[in-house]
Each structure stands twice: as C-alpha cells, then as structure tokens.
Amino acid sequence: MAAHLSYGRVNLNILREAARKDLREFLDKCAGSKAIVWDEYLTGPFGLIAQYSLLKEHEVEKMFTLKGGRLPAAEVKNIIFFVRPRLELMDIIAENVISEDKMRSPRDFHILFVPRRSLLCEQRLKERGVLGSFINVDEYILDLIPYDGDLLSMESEGAFRECYLENDQTSLYHTAKGLMTLQALYGTIPQIFGKGECARHVANMMLRMKREFAGCQTQVLPVFDTLLLLDRNVDLLTPLATQLTYEGLIDEIYGINNGYVKLPPEKFAQKKQGEGEKDLPTEPKKLQLNSAEELYAEIRDKNFNAVGAALSKKAKIISAAFEERHNAKTVGEIKQFVSQLPHMQAARTSLANHTSIAELIKDITSRQKIPPPLHPGLYLTLLHFSIIVVLCCISCVPPYVSASEAFFDNLTVEQEFMTGVDTDKVNTYIEDCIAQKDPLIKILRLVCMQSVCNNGLKQKVLDYYKREILQTYGYEHILTLNNLEKTGLLKLQTSTRNNYPTIRKTLKLWMEDANEQNPNDISYVYSGYAPLSVRLTQLLARPGWRSIEEVLKMLPGPHFEERQQLPAGLHKKRQQGENRTTLVFFLGGVTYAEIAALRFLSQMEDGGTEYVIATTKLINGTTWIKSLMDRLEEPPF
Amino acid sequence: MAFVTANWNPLGDAFYRKVELYEMGWSLKDGLRDCHVAAAPYGGPIAGHLHSLRNARSCLPGAIRCPLTTFSPIWGPQWKSGVVKQLGWTVGDDLLCVQEDGTVLVYDLFGSFKRHFSMGNELVQSHVLEAKVFHSPYGTGIALLSGTFRFILATNIEDLKLRRLPEVPGLQGAPSCWAVLSQDRQSKVLLAAGPDLYMLDTTACTPVIPPGLTPQASSIVHMAVSFSYKYLAFFTDSGHVWMGSANLKDKLGEVETKMKTPPKQMAWCRRPKGQQPSVVVMWEKNLLVAGQCQETIQYPFVDSVLVPEMDGVRIISGSHHELLQEVPAACEEIFKIASMAPGALLLEANREYEKESQKADEYLREIKEQDLLGEAVKQCVEAAGYEHEPETQKMLLRAASFGKCFLSNFRPELFVHMCRDLRVLNAVRDYTVGIPLTLPHKQQSVSRVLKHWACCKVQQKEEADEVIARAISVKLGETAGISYSDIAAKAYECGRTELAIKLLEFEPRSGEQVPLLLKMKRSQLALSKAIESGDTDLVYTVVTYLKNEMNRGDFFMTLRNQPVALSLYRQFCKHQEPETLKDLFNQDDDHQELGNFYVRASYQEGKLETRVSLLQSAVDEYNKAKNEFAAKATEEEIRLLRFQRRVEEEKGERVLGCSLHDTLHCLLTLGLHKQAEQLYKDFRVPDKRYWWLKLTALAEKEDWEELEKFAKSKKSPIGYLPFVEVCVKHLNKYEAKKYVSKVTPEQKVKAHLAVGDLEGAAEAAIERRSEGEVSLVLSRCSATTDRTIVDRLNRARAAAAKK
C-alpha cells in the first residue's frame, strides 16, 4: 500500500506503520460504531497515514467537518473529534456538545488531539463545562509524516510565520519531539550540525529531552549518521526563485497539496473516436504524485527542459514493449506477455498523464527564444489501443503577451538579481508589473528577492516599492510589508557593504554553464542558481564547514556541532565504500527543487552521502509569501 | 544440598516446584477460613479481614491488617465501618476495602485511613454482591456486581469514572462466576450464567463460546484470568479445566480433574518464556496443577489463598507461605538428573575442584572442547538468580566464577549485577522484612521500590529538608523510571513545600515540574520551568494561571521578563482578547505595533468616521515610532477614504475601500478625467504608472479616440510598445498599427510581430542586424506561407555570418 516508503535508503514505512498502529489502538478504545468530526486542516495530513478503508475497518461509519451548531444526526455510538489543540476549535466543540439533542439515545464523546494534547485546551473545555462529557481525551502524536521514500514533512503550514514572525516556538517543540520519536525508531543520531537560531533551539531541546529520557535509551543500531538542522532564514533566497524542475514547476503552477495536485481537466479528457467535445470533464483532475509511480520518480527531479526527452524515450520503450506481442508465438510467450500487461498499461496511463502535465506546463513556460525543450512534432501513436499521445504541439501561435512571455521575463529578472545585476536600483520590470497590477505575490517575491540579493534596499528604493504596492494593491498591505520586514525578507540596507556577492562567489551559487540535460552540479534545478541551503549541506559533507567559516558568519544565526553519546555496542562499523546517511531538516519549509538537488547529491557516484529530507512543510515562493501576509477583509459598508 | 530437585514434580516436558518461603507468624485460630485475604502482586503486602460469624452478627467485625506480610502482623484497630465485601491492593500499594453499600475505603501501607469514595448511590439500596479489584493499563480498577445483577466498573480509581455495563438478557440470579478482562486497552467483564457465557463491555453484551469446550460440560462454575490478561481458564461442572487465550479464539488444552465440586480458587501459573503454562486449582483439601499437556500434579493441602504472580503462584495459608512455579529453564538444565548441559558440567567441575580432584579438569575440558564455557557461566549465573536458598545461589555463583577464570574476554557485568541483585533480594526476603521478591519481580519493580522508599522518607518529620533531599538524590541518582515530581507531590501532601521544591530540582523533565509548582503557588518558578521545557502549551497554561492569580500590572511585569511567554501571550490575545493586546503594547511603548494594531482595528470597523479616527491614531503611533513612511502612507489612506466618500456622494459610484490604483481605474473608465487627474497629482502617482493606468482603462472602454489624444498629449514615459500591446490585447490591430511607427528601434521587431506584420518585423530585424531577433521572427514564420520572408531572413543571417 505504501511500498514506495520502504524503497529508500531508510525504510520510512516503519514510521508510518507505527502511526497507523497508534490510530487503530485509539479507535478500538472507543468500542462500537463511530463518527469522526474532523478539523478540516487535518484531513490532508491524515490521508498520508491512513485511507478511509482503515477507518472503516474500525467501525467509523460517518465523517463530518467540524463546524458550529448542532452535530448532524448519525446513528452511532461514539463521536470522535480529531482536532488540533486550538482554542477556537474548542469553542466549536463545546457548542457541538452542548447543543446535542438530549432526547435521543446518548452518544459517547471522545477527543483526539493532534499532534499533542494541550492543558490549555482542556482548561477551555472545562470552562465551557463540557470536559466531563468526554470519555476519552487523548493525543495522537503525529509530528513527522512520511511523505515519500526519502521525505518527511510535518505539514505545518504556519511554522515559518510562527517561528520567525510571531516568536512562537510551538512548531519547534513539535520538531524536537518528532526527532525524538524518529530516534526511538531509527536509533540515536550521533552527530548533529546546525545553522540558525531555530536550529540551535531545536538541538537544545533534543539534548534536553535525551537527558530527560536518560535510562530508557533505545537499543537500535543508528540508521542516520548525521542530522543537519537548517533554518529557513539562513537561505531566504532559494524559495523566492522559480523552481525549474518538473515537480517544482508543477508545484509553482498548480500547487501540490499533501502529495496531490489538482489540474485543469481539459487535457485529460479521454478522446474517443466518434465522440464530440460534449462531455469534457469539469471537475479538476486529481493526481497523486510520489515515487510509487515509476515514471514520475524518474522525471520529477529533472530540469523541465530535460523532461521532454525522457518522456519520448519512455514512450518508445513502452510502444516497443507493446509491439512485443507480435513476436509472441507460443502459448507460453503469449502468457508471459499477458502477465506483463497490467504493468504496461499502468505505465502507459502514467506516461499519458505526464505528457499532458508537461504540455500544460510548457504552454506557460516555453518561449521560442530558448531552445524548444520538447522534441517538436513527436507524435507517438499506440494505434491498437486508440490512445494518441501527443507529446508536443507548438502549432498554435500564442497570443501576444502570453503566459510564457511573462514567465520568461520574470525568470530573466530573477536571474539578473541572482547574478547581482542592478540590484540596487528600482527595476523597470517590477515597475511595469505593478503598473499592470500583476498578482501581488509575484511582485512581493521579486521585490524580496532583490532585497535579499542586495543585502537590503536603499531607503529610497525600498520606500518607492512600498509606496507603489500600497497605492496599487491597497493600504491594508502595510501590515504584510511590515511582516516581510520583520522576517528579513525585505529590509533596509544598513551597511554600505553588500555581502551577497561574496557569499555567491565563495559558495559558487551561480554556475554559468548549468547543464540541464545531464547535470553535473546542483545548479541545474534553477538553471544556473545552486540553492544556498543545499550548497551548505554539500560542503558540510565535504570538505566540512571549517572551510567556509567566513561565509557562515555572514549568514544569520549561530552554527554549531553536537555529539550524542551512543550506548555501548551500537557503534556502527562502516563497510568500505558504504555511504553515510544524513537527515537534513529544513525548519520553516523546503522547496521541491531543493529536494531534487539533494537527491542529485545522493545519487552522485562519488558523493559518499545519502540524504533523507525532513521539513515543517513543503513550500514554494507563493505559498511561503502567502503564509506571511496579513489578510484584512474590507468591512462591509 | 544435593537434593535441589527433591521438591520438583514433572508436568509434561517441564518441572514444577513448590518452595517454602516463610512460616507465618500470625496466630490465627481457624486459619484463614473466616478471613478476606488480599495480597498485592510482586511479593507485596498481605491484608486480611476477619468476619467470623459471631462478629458478623454484632455487625462490627474485627479487622486485622497485616501489611509487609508474614512475620509480624501489624494489627489494625477494631473495625467500625460497614460490612466488607472485598479487599484489594492498588498498584501504588494502597489497601482498598469495598463495603456492602458501595463505599470504598482507602488505607495506606501502614494502615492509616486516606480517603473514601462511593461506587454509586444505587448500591446503598441494592448492595454489593461481589467485587473484584483488578489492575489495568490505566491503574487500579474495581468491578462490582450489584444486588440487581448489574455490573459497575471503574477502570481507574484515581480518576473515578463509573460505568454501568449493559444488562445481561435473562439474568435472574447472580452469575455462577465472572472475571474482568483487559483487552485492546478496554476492561470487559466475562460472566457465566448457567450454560451461557457473555462478554460485557461498555456498549454491548455479546454471547461468546469458548472453542473446543468439552460437550460433557453443561455450565462453567469457575474462571481465572492470567496475570498478563492473555489467557483464560474455565472449570466446568463436569470437572474439566479448559485453557485458552483470553480473546476466546484459541484453545490451549483441556484437562479432566475428576473433581466435580466447584473449586474454591483457581489461578494461572505461568512464567515468562515458560514452556508449560498451567492452572492451579484449589479445593478445601486439595491442590491440583493442571498443565496444558493434560497431566496433573496433586498436592495435599490445607486451606489457603492463591496469589497469582508474573512468574508463578504464591500460596498463603494460616501457617505457611509458599511459591509454586515452573522450574526455570536454566535451573532445569543444571539440576536435572543426568543433565549434560554446559552449566551442569561446570557445576560438577567446580565441585570436583573444591574436592581437589583432577576430574575437575576432565569436566572443564569437555565443556571447552565444545566451546561452550561462556554459555556454561551464563547458565550458572542465571540459575543462581532463580534460586531462593542462599547456599544454592553461592554454589552456582562459585561455579560461574570458577568457569570465568578460563575465559579471556568474558564481560564481568553479568556476574557483578547478579551478585548485587541477589544481595538485595536476599535482604528483602529476610523474614524480618518478609518481601518474597523474585528476580523477575525485582527487575520490574526496582524503581517502584525506590520511589516508595523516597515517598516514605519525605514523611520523616524530624529530618531537615536539606538532608532528606540530599539523601534521596544520592540513593535514587538517575535511575530510570523514577519520577521526582511524584515524590515531590508526596512531600507537598505532607505539608513540606520547601522540600518539594528541592526535590523538583532533581526532576530532569521540566514539564513534570510545572503542575506541582503551580499547585504550590510557585507560579514564577513554574513559568521559567515551563519555558525551559520548550513546551509552549505548558507556558500557555502557566500564563493563564498567572493572569488569574496576579493583578494586571504585576502580570505584565512578569511577562516582560520572559520574552518567550510574552510573545506567546501576545498570540493568545491577538485571537482572544484584542484589547489586552493593546494594553501590552502600550506598556512596552511599542508604537510600531500599536500603529499596526489600530490599522487592523480600522478594518474591522464599518463606519467611516470611526475608521478614520482609528487610522489617525495609527498615524500618531507611527510618528512616535519614527516610522515616517508608515505615518505618511496611513495619512494618504485617510485622504483617499475621504476622497472616495466624496466621489460616492457626488457621483454615486461605489469606490470606497478600493485601492488608489483601482479608484483611478474606475474614474478613468467612467470618464471622470478631471477627478482622476486630481488624484494623480494629489497622490503623486508616478507618471509611468499613471500612463499605464490610463492606457488600459481607455482600451478597456474601447475609447480609441481618447487614447489617440492621450498618446499625443506628450511623450509617453512608458514608450509606445505598451500601446501596441494593449490594443492587440483588446483585439484591435487597426489601432495598434497606429503606434507601431512610434516605437523605439529596439522594440520595433516586437511591435511588428504583435500586430502580425511579419514583413515589417523581418525588415526591422535585418536592419538591426540582430541574430536573436532574426531567429525570433523566423520561428514565427511558417515554412509554407511565408516562403519569401524566410528566404530573406536566411540570406541576411548568412550574410551576417560571413562578416
């Protein structure tokens, strides 16, 4: 079911199974039929742990979304609230419980806090006089959710905002707890490195918790050799840049949520001969994206410009495989062919889906100036199954100011900033975009990027941008701008010296000759820009951070190293040529492109280190900036 | 000594032994016949309650409680309370007395009264028929059968929640027997009523059938659950003992006992990793061990009480205290007659060595040849742990020590720990202490014993806090599973707050310290501990507590010194108490945040005047914060709102709340050029943006004439390419073409392409000699229709390449 989780360097399925076991145990504690009332936010993350079928096996008959008023009628014995420990949710629950129909047969109430129970919330329930109505008040510890074979996420959207803007370190506490759970399952991690204030805080908590649990140490052979904790604010630049890997672009354009993406349905319509266009689906097409899908695992981390070639290669292989049947002469051979059919058909569906997605993306990104990424006019026809996979259609001339034009211009400006071109002046492209009232987030991404690449903007430039934004998008955004300034994304240049060029040069953040097709450096994920965070990770493995002390000092927050004593007898004896395993934890979010870069490093033949990635949330520039915005609704007049 | 096996009895492949632990020192005339007796597991204390007929008539039965077992009973005072139905011990070694009216009295280990609680008012009327005390993962529970044949259950008496289990259909009298099971973290009652068997949980009553129960049986007269709740045994009226798993899915075996009378008591006798689990059945004069293998052992017997343990059964009678258990594998290997196990050989080798016989070497050689010496030492050490006679222990340890001499890299810990453990065990087993702990018990309960000791220690009133705290920390050190906060709670209970605080200092889990500190009203300390723990929920909890406890000024001052708590409290206020948030900022003179606060507030306000006044306050605060930009921007906002209101009043257009940009756009599309112009000037909108605005607004309106006028009004600050583009966007190529000629040379190609004029584009590209632009135009050409242009471009390209 979740086999893809066990194929990686570290079997993350153990973690998932542990989580599922806990869930089952809780459900069984509430004997009889049950209905679950969901805090809507939790349904996505829970989907990564358990499908509805598991709940159904444990007599969950109904599911509702948590909202005020009276609970819907359901002939069940138990009502279970699955909620985050939030006060506002407690008020809703209290309302639900109080307005329960007294005339009907009584239902048992239970509450399950995710990821941790909270005294504060229980106190609130007590104040509302309903705490006594709950038979079970329990917690479901769900910190790190296995997201893919080498990826763990806490799926906590607000983590960056809470830590860096509101100084609320709740999510860091959960991180530390999650890492302790991980160590209980996968052994103590002997080495901890970190960079940034939050990283320091998490490491401190971990060491403290280890002391607290002294005595009950796990006797598990350590799976991870190193843990690297990285603050997002050490590298503010990377998420602002547009990701150029396949997966990264899907996320930038359509948004991947809890492993699912919703796509416009038109391109996925099953075209059958004789049927008109009448029944085009209107519901967005929902696809799950993870390494369980062979093709996706292969292309997700490629630069988008290399995806076309990979797809066409795959298409040839599949069509050759189907051709095989002509060679099947004996009954045995036919049988063999038939037994492979399901797999081949799945591969073909997968290919068709990704071809459609690639087409969708291409409409937005491609422009004639840059070499056409897909092999033009490659038509692949699998006639016998009457599905036509069209790999590329550039026949239609795009409307003048097309999406692709905008995409390209945007990219050009980004790359100018990253290479340090004119970062100290007002940029005309940004100006024009504001004048045409392009989406605010796009503007903010660019302005922030300029500020980061210039180590702050001059007062005049900063004020100009701010004024333009306020006048165009409304004065309420003064709060958002204030937030961006607080987190350092936007700032006033205080010293005359801009240290970004030094950082860029020392860490080789810009590679002029990035090879998109056959990459030899991580910079391929942004077609030239090598993500700072990943560069730090790479340099830590070899030759070590001591070589870049100077640059580390320029980046915010302390850098540190801690060692955790292993119980006797658990010291790993490394085989010759065996790779080290490093867990990289991004506090405040990570992008798909950064993940791709780390996977690239894992696969490098002489790399010597394999990476497992953990984060508070998978982000991209848009979702990230969005999480920092203060939304003020206009009052109704 | 030679007869270690004298008390062994074979049962299937295994052996059972009955070891006498103590002779009982209590002087009971009639044995235990008229006694309620309860013994705590893990060799724990025993309590007895006398209810002789004579006393029962007088309704004032005399009571004895004799904790710490066996030798010198501690006599309790005369019993003055109601009729006792059942005695039991909690996991924390408190004594529970369940009375007929449903009241439960709680005594501590030394027999002093602690508290009482009721199991439901209905029991005053209906009375308790039977009661059972059981241990569940949640603590100690009580199950009762009431006079109306209903079961009442509490799974944890520390957190009393009474559950009335559903009625059993057709139950007219008391069930013949019942037991409490703990399954899937739930406590259930299994009862037998005549031929039927029912499983009762909180929701339903389900009939169940044990698999493979002999057809000769017509009813179940007794049942027993194993110590671990995993196994179940029934005694049927036909004299069969059925053994199986507690979930009633598997049958382990069935034994015919040929006894038809219902037994007095029945208990499981298992040991971890044992091979032959058995059930001990007890009648008035008979004791029978029935194994899974269908064999039995019979013991002659006097009236006793069985106490199931995790590794056997304790048998307590008026005069003796014995332990019945399966012989552990290590002991069996070594002592079994004619055993050739490495341990047995080593023991023999040592014996010969002590006799100074050369045979010692022969035995040793035999073990070493098989390379089993390490194994032999391990076996001897392990077996020593299971023996009760110190002499036997010594013999085995000597043999191990002898064997160790011939091993070069044998880790000493095993031997050292065993010696240490045995010293402790022998000391507590001493008859003056009388705790018959076995090794597996000790391994389970070391921390419990230490904790208990510490809890008693804090009650010694004569010693100074400092001394006690030090003594406890020295003894407990960092033993796993010790909760200093529990000990501290005990100290606080005894009124020793200072000691409690000292003890809490030793608690490594700061989270654990907080609730008690709050209880002791050391809220400041609690706050810093909560922050230390990193658990924000704890911090919130303490903060809310402080808020209610302190006056506002002090509260704010406290927070000021704790930035972590302060920012959390701010978050709390932002959602729950916005006004308090304002006070907080005020106190800190945080004018920037105050300004933001007013801005936020202004957006929750419907009335324009209030809004403006809130924004005015924001301006003042921003000024105080020396944030000139924000102050100015907010002033602008006020001006804009006023302007918008005027436009609404004069023109009836809804623009209030729009951004400046949108307002301008709206005015321009409406043709209110004068007002737009005024706004443009008042707000010093950059020319470029204004031109863009006007351009798009006019194009949207399709007011081409006005657009042309505008284009000619003065030189465009944004150039003329946007004019071309915007016209094309509104599908008016004709208008677009008008502006192509005005476009700067650099943008010519783009402009021509935009209007679809390939020829023009080609010409411009060639003129500019730009390779990039040539290929751009080429890419737009179709090879069939634009033949001539393609040729021209290719020629130009070739010419350029030549140069």
UniProtKB/TrEMBL annotation, chain A:
It is found in: Cytoplasmic vesicle, Autophagosome; Cytoplasmic vesicle, Clathrin-coated vesicle; Early endosome; Late endosome membrane. It is a peripheral membrane protein. InterPro entries: Sec-1-like_dom1, Sec-1-like_dom3a, Sec1-like, Sec1-like_dom2, Sec1-like_sf, VPS33_dom3b. Signal peptide: none annotated. Keywords: Cytoplasmic vesicle, Endosome, Lysosome, Membrane, Protein transport, Transport. One of its GO terms (cellular component) is late endosome membrane. The keyword Protein transport applies. GO terms for biological process: protein transport; vesicle-mediated transport. Its main location: cytoplasm. PANTHER family: VESICLE PROTEIN SORTING-ASSOCIATED (PTHR11679). Belongs to the STXBP/unc-18/SEC1 family. Plays a role in vesicle-mediated protein trafficking to lysosomal compartments including the endocytic membrane transport and autophagic pathways. Believed to act as a core component of the putative HOPS and CORVET endosomal tethering complexes which are proposed to be involved in the Rab5-to-Rab7 endosome conversion probably implicating MON1A/B, and via binding SNAREs and SNARE complexes to mediate tethering and docking events during SNARE-mediated membrane fusion. This is Vacuolar protein sorting-associated protein 33A. It comes from Scleropages formosus.
From TrEMBL, chain B:
Keywords: Endosome, Lysosome, Membrane, Protein transport, Transport. Coiled coil: none annotated. GO terms for molecular function: actin binding. It holds the Pfam family Vps16_C. Its main location: membrane. It is a peripheral membrane protein. One of its GO terms (biological process) is intracellular protein transport. Residues 5-417 form the Vps16 N-terminal domain. Residues 482-798 form the Vps16 C-terminal domain. One of its GO terms (cellular component) is CORVET complex. It is found in: Late endosome membrane; Lysosome membrane. Plays a role in vesicle-mediated protein trafficking to lysosomal compartments including the endocytic membrane transport and autophagic pathways. Believed to act as a core component of the putative HOPS and CORVET endosomal tethering complexes. Belongs to the VPS16 family. Core component of at least two putative endosomal tethering complexes, the homotypic fusion and vacuole protein sorting (HOPS) complex and the class C core vacuole/endosome tethering (CORVET) complex. Their common core is composed of the class C Vps proteins VPS11, VPS16, VPS18 and VPS33A, which in HOPS further associates with VPS39 and VPS41 and in CORVET with VPS8 and TGFBRAP1. Interacts with RAB5C. Interacts with STX17, MON1B. Associates with adapter protein complex 3 (AP-3) and clathrin:AP-3 complexes. This is Vacuolar protein sorting-associated protein 16 homolog. The gene is VPS16.
